[in-house]
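Tokens in:
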């Protein structure tokens, strides 16, 4: 049976630390704060105490609120800890899905945190069910732990490698056992994972370098595709579960998802976004009075646009930092209300001006439509929308929350139609070549080191359980046809 298009475990943030002089859980807490942008639906921290027992505290909502409980850290003793920040789409909110997940049925007990999405999760779950596995959550993330538990390999590392070889899709895992911490990255390195070291010798493995900075850890290396990084009291060792690898890291990490102060595979996210903005300006020269960005994710791109075009950069939109995210609201009406509560216009900047509005992406079109209307209501003479990434037409199955083609405005409408829907005076996207040039990864494989499937349909791996559903959707939406208008 084809997999339903669903989103249970998506972007997320992971953080592990080994060998802290003092309580590791507190370090994990600090680190997770820097990863809060990767999810706001839940968070958890697990620590291993002197008796090698796993103790966990987790909850739903924002990290600060969850760990505001005066007893939250009571049982989180020990020099090693593992944390997780959860991103979930509407409908999957239950505490059972909040990580880290614990596995205590074997001699070697362990815990894991995951970022990504497996493309063969249903097949693996079916196989696991037949072996008698009882799942502790709805999340695909636990599959790795379940596979490790049923493996017959002699060593824990052997079991990790065997299990990793059975999984497909995008996965960045950090595992913690009483003897070691492990990082495991899928053969395409679709999700970011980075290793750092603190002055006290503690080793950190986490989703983004901004979390290394937060806990005063120096960058050591990015976890490479197909690698297993092993950290124990003797230091850091590198192993592989497969040599059949090809780096295609998710380009949406650079476009939207990662924090601008992070560096992924040697590329500063902020600088990459500035170049995206500059290139969309160069590709589409336009006369205007002022350039504004949509706070916060497109401010870097808007700066790049302004510098390249010579048009003054201004603060035309203000974000209310205290309104929750709108993207995953279950209904369109709630999403629209959310956008209007989240953003407001600085009228003096906009009134009687020809405005360039830079945003990082258009998914459903809710944000752009609302902002264009707000700017026009504030007296803008014209609004030219410039998107610092290409037209988003294809779903992602590797862990970014854009899985339903029916929800993607770019999959259902031409650029000209989208321009009319969002009521902009003009609309231009960055080209795929421009995106690749802007990110500029030092990688010469056929994908330039990037997954750009959402924009060009070039999935770097087979889609396994999703293929049938995707084919049916794609056929319905004529995704395979060359779209002349979109160029
Ligand atoms: P929409 O309003 O649906 O067109 O969403 C576009 C806005 O959502 C953009 O301004 C992005 O900053 C943001 N965005 C893009 N991709 C995602 C994602 N996967 N999850 C949450 N927000 C996103």
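Residues out:
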């Amino acid at each position: 049976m084809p997999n339903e298009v669903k989103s249970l475990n998506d972007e997320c943030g992971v953080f592990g630390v080994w060998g802290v002089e003092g309580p590791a859980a507190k370090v994990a807490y600090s680190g997770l704060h820097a990863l809060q942008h990767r999810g706001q639906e839940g968070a958890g921290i697990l620590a291993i105490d002197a008796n090698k027992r796993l103790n966990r505290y987790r909850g739903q909502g924002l990290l600060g609120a969850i760990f505001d409980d005066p007893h939250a850290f009571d049982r989180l003793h020990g020099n090693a800890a593992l944390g997780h920040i959860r991103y979930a789409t509407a409908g999957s909110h239950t505490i059972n899905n909040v990580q880290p997940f614990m596995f205590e049925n074997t001699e070697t007990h362990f815990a894991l945190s995951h970022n990504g999405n497996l493309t063969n999760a249903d097949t693996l779950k079916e196989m696991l069910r037949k072996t008698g596995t009882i799942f502790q959550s709805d999340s695909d993330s636990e599959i790795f732990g379940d596979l490790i538990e049923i493996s017959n390999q002699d060593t824990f590392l052997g079991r990790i490698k065997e299990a990793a070889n059975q999984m497909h899709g995008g996965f960045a895992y950090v595992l913690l056992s009483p003897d070691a911490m492990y990082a495991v990255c899928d053969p395409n390195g679709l999700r970011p994972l980075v290793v750092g070291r603190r002055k006290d010798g503690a080793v950190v493995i986490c989703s983004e370098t901004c979390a290394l900075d937060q806990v005063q850890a120096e960058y050591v290396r990015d976890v490479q595709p197909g690698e297993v990084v092993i950290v124990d009291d003797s230091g850091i060792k590198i192993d592989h579960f497969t040599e059949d690898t090809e780096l295609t890291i998710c380009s949406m990490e650079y476009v939207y998802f990662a924090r601008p102060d992070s560096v992924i595979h040697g590329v500063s996210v902020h600088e990459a976004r500035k170049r995206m903005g500059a290139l969309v300006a160069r590709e589409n020269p336009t006369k205007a009075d002022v350039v504004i960005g949509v706070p916060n994710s497109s401010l870097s791109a808007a700066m790049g646009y302004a510098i390249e075009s010579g048009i003054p950069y201004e603060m035309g939109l203000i974000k209310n930092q205290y309104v929750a995210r709108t993207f995953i609201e279950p209904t369109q009406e709630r999403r629209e209300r959310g956008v209007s509560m989240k953003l407001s216009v600085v009228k003096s900047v906009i009134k009687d001006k020809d405005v360039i509005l830079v945003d990082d992406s258009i998914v459903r079109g809710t944000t752009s439509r609302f902002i264009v209307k707000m700017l026009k209501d504030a007296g803008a003479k014209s609004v030219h929308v410039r998107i610092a990434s290409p037209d988003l037409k294809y779903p992602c199955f590797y862990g970014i929350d854009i899985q339903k083609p029916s929800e993607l405005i770019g999959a259902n409408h031409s650029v000209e139609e989208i321009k009319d829907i969002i009521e902009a005076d003009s609309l231009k996207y960055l080209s795929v070549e421009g995106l690749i040039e802007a990110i500029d990864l030092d990688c010469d494989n056929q994908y330039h080191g990037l997954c750009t499937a959402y924009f060009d349909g070039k999935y770097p791996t087979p889609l396994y359980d999703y293929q049938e559903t995707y084919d049916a959707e794609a056929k319905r939406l004529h995704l395979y046809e060359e779209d002349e208008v979109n160029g």
